[in-house]
Design goal:
By secondary structure, this protein is mostly helical. The chain has helices at about 1-10, 40-45, 50-55, 60-70, 75-80, 120-125, 125-135, 155-165, 180-195, 200-210, and strands at about 85-90, 90-95, 115. It has a 3-stranded antiparallel β-sheet. Helix 4 packs parallel to helix 9 and helix 9 packs antiparallel against helix 10 (about 200-210).
C-alpha cells in the first residue's frame, strides 16, 4: 500500500523511525478495494463518439455507462430493471429500483428508491427506446443482457471492464484506487456535492440509495 511504502521509506532511507511500524500490523481483510471517481480525462475517453461507433453494438452497451453516470445507480440495479420500473411520479420520469421479481435484488433497504431520469438521458433517447420495447412486447429494459446467477450485473460488469480497457482508461488511478463501473457512482455523488447549487447531502443519499447519515 501507499502508506506501507511511505513508512518503509522513513525507516530505510531517512532513518526517521527506529523500526518499520507496519511490520507486525495485521490488516483487516477488506472485501473490495477503494474506487475512484472518473475525472474529465477518463470521461472524455469513455464517451468518445468514435469509441461508441466502434464498440457499441447492442442497447445495453450504449445505455449502461450513460445510466451509471447520470443516475449514480449500481450496475446490478441498472441491469435488472424491468419496463414496469420506468414510471412517472409527480410529472417526472423515474427509474424504480426494487426487488419485486425473483431475479432482482437490492443491497440494503435504503436502496429501494426512485431515481429521476436525467434530462441528458432523455435527450439521448432513453424514453424513445423504452417506448419501442413496450411496443414490441418486451418486459425487461435490456432484453439483450444476460443476468448473472450470482449478481444481476455480473456479465455487464465484465463487459464494462473490456470497454474501459478499449477506451484507454487504466484499471486504477495514481493512488491505486480502482476505476470500475462503480466509479460512475462515485463520480455522480462527488459532482453533486461539489456543484455550485450545493445539493443537500440527505437528498443525494436518497437518490443513490445510501443510508442517511443525517
Amino acid at each position: 500500500t501507499v502508506l506501507n511504502r511511505f513508512f518503509a521509506w522513513c525507516y530505510e532511507i531517512q532513518e526517521f523511525m527506529p523500526k518499520p511500524i507496519t511490520t507486525n500490523i495485521l490488516l483487516k481483510n477488506v472485501s473490495s478495494r477503494q474506487r475512484a471517481p472518473f475525472g474529465d480525462t477518463e470521461l472524455a475517453k469513455l464517451f468518445s463518439p468514435a469509441l461508441y461507433r466502434d464498440l457499441v453494438d447492442t442497447p445495453y452497451k450504449f445505455w449502461l455507462p450513460l445510466m451509471g453516470l447520470f443516475t449514480g445507480a449500481r450496475i446490478s440495479e441498472i441491469a435488472q430493471l424491468n419496463l414496469d420500473d420506468v414510471l412517472v411520479n409527480g410529472g417526472i420520469h423515474a427509474f424504480r429500483i426494487l426487488d419485486l421479481d425473483e431475479d432482482q435484488e437490492v443491497k440494503t433497504a435504503a436502496a429501494r428508491r426512485l431515481v429521476p431520469i436525467h434530462a441528458k438521458l432523455s435527450e439521448a433517447g432513453i424514453l424513445d427506446y423504452i417506448g419501442r420495447l413496450r411496443a414490441a412486447g418486451e418486459s425487461r429494459l435490456f432484453p439483450d443482457l444476460t443476468l448473472g446467477s450470482r449478481s444481476p450485473g455480473g456479465p455487464a460488469s465484465q463487459h464494462f471492464t473490456r470497454f474501459r480497457n478499449s477506451a484507454g482508461v487504466p484499471a486504477e488511478d495514481s493512488l491505486e484506487r480502482e476505476w470500475v463501473f462503480h466509479s460512475f457512482r462515485h463520480t455522480f455523488v462527488t459532482r453533486l456535492r461539489l456543484h455550485e447549487a450545493k445539493h443537500d447531502v440527505a437528498l443525494i443519499q436518497q437518490i443513490v440509495g445510501h443510508e442517511k447519515s443525517l
